[in-house]
């Protein structure tokens, strides 16, 4: 049950921040956001606030922000349509009823002659006296069809009406917020757990090792090797590993006293390469540092960003196969293992997953955010947009291929973990 709760919280946070990025920048650009959804499939819970419907959906495999002007969102009134119109105090249409199922007082019936519900916002039609009249439509008018109400979206509030830059940032904001979330997670770890100092402090000296024979003890702080100042554990490791069989002069600090040792690294039998070891273990000390926590958050975010790109490069060059990829099932099982190591390890896992989600979405593949960004870049270069039908077809094919990949990866996970 703890694993289920952990998975739901982590996955929900990743999806929420990703979609919140799209949502926030869409709002800043003046785009009407019709729905903010966490999850896919049937709706479990829905709350309307302002002009946006906030929903929680059944399948925890993603989320979306539905913006006006996308996915056949535009409302059209054709000649011959019979509609009902409710007017506001200014004589503008505040509600347009496509199929009347409710009785409204003071409703005006029209047979539509022509209409513009995007730019100039008007309806022209014949009333019950067969008189041709023209009615202005309010910018915040509502269209009701079969009991379902939809807020009218003037063209200047639709996604496609915005500049390339605003559309680019609205889509890019999703992955961007995943990177921001990762930074906040790693920063929080630094604040709560402390920031690793990476000081070259010996945590444990193993028995019968070169270090033990020379007299080194737990808690010794290595300050110099062969007269070279040592400031981090990585510098100590590099000096030892590159000097297998060579005597090294160590200067250490113990209880405020400086001591000197001569230690000869022996060749490790745990590595295929000829590297030196002296038989000491390390666990990085931590310190509470408010401002250092932000630096630690940035360092960890950059580290995992580079690491995930390195793994992607290995996939592209064939250094590991598609069988190494994991879908929701694999992520769930890994979360189960990671949770055993404690809260902070689970937080680190969530930060890494957030970066991974951001990078995956930025890949220039159809249907992903990166694929849409490529079309925006192409539009900026050409000076005109790509035909929407052609772009839609490319994204449709991309969705089908991604669904196929998801099925393959999920099946591999099921085979790996349950059979």
UniProtKB/TrEMBL annotation:
**Which Pfam families does this entry report, sorted A to Z?**
PDZ_6, Peptidase_M50
UniProt enzyme class: hydrolase
Q: How does it sit in the membrane?
A: Multi-pass membrane protein
Localization per Swiss-Prot or TrEMBL: Membrane
Q: Where is the PDZ domain?
A: 182-256
* Source superkingdom: Bacteria
So what family is this one in? Belongs to the peptidase M50B family.
Output this protein's name.
Zinc metalloprotease
- Classification lineage: Bacteria, Bacillati, Bacillota, Bacilli, Bacillales
């Amino acid at each position: 049950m703890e694993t289920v709760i952990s998975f739901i919280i982590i996955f929900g946070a990743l999806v929420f921040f990703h979609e919140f990025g799209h949502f926030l920048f869409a709002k800043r650009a003046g785009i009407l956001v019709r729905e903010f959804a966490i999850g896919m499939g049937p709706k479990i819970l829905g709350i309307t606030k302002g002009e946006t419907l906030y929903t929680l959906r059944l399948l925890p495999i993603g989320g979306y922000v539905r913006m006006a002007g996308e996915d056949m969102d535009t409302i059209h009134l054709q000649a011959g349509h019979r509609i009902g119109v409710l007017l506001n105090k200014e004589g503008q249409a505040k509600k347009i009823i496509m199929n009347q199922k409710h009785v409204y007082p003071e409703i005006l019936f029209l047979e539509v002659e022509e209409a513009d519900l995007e730019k100039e916002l008007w309806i022209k039609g014949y009333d019950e006296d067969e008189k041709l009249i023209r009615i202005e439509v309010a910018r915040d008018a509502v269209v009701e069809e079969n009991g379902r109400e939809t807020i009218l979206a003037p063209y200047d509030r639709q996604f496609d009406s915005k500049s390339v830059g605003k559309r680019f940032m609205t889509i890019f904001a999703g992955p961007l917020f995943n990177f921001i979330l990762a930074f906040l997670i790693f920063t929080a770890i630094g604040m709560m757990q402390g920031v690793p100092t990476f000081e070259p402090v010996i945590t444990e000296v193993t028995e019968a090792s070169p270090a033990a024979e020379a007299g080194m003890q737990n808690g010794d702080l290595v300050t110099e090797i062969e007269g070279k100042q040592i400031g981090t554990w990585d510098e100590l490791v590099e000096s030892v590993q590159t000097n297998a069989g060579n005597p090294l002069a160590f200067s250490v600090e113990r209880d405020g006293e400086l001591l000197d040792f001569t230690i000869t690294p022996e060749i490790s039998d745990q590595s295929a390469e000829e590297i030196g070891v002296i038989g000491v273990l390390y666990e990085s000390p931590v310190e509470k540092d408010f401002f250092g926590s932000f630096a630690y958050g940035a360092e960890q975010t950059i580290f995992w960003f580079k690491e995930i790109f390195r793994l992607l490069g290995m996939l592209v060059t064939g250094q590991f196969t598609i069988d190494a990829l994991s879908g929701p099932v694999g992520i769930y099982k890994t979360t189960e293992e990671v949770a055993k190591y404690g809260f902070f390890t689970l937080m680190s896992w969530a930060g890494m997953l957030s970066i991974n989600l951001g990078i995956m979405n930025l890949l220039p593949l159809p249907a992903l955010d990166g694929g849409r960004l490529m079309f925006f870049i192409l539009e900026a270069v050409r000076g005109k947009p790509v035909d929407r039908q052609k772009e839609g077809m490319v994204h449709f094919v991309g969705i089908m291929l991604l669904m196929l990949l998801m099925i393959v990866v999920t099946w591999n996970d099921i085979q790996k973990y349950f059979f």
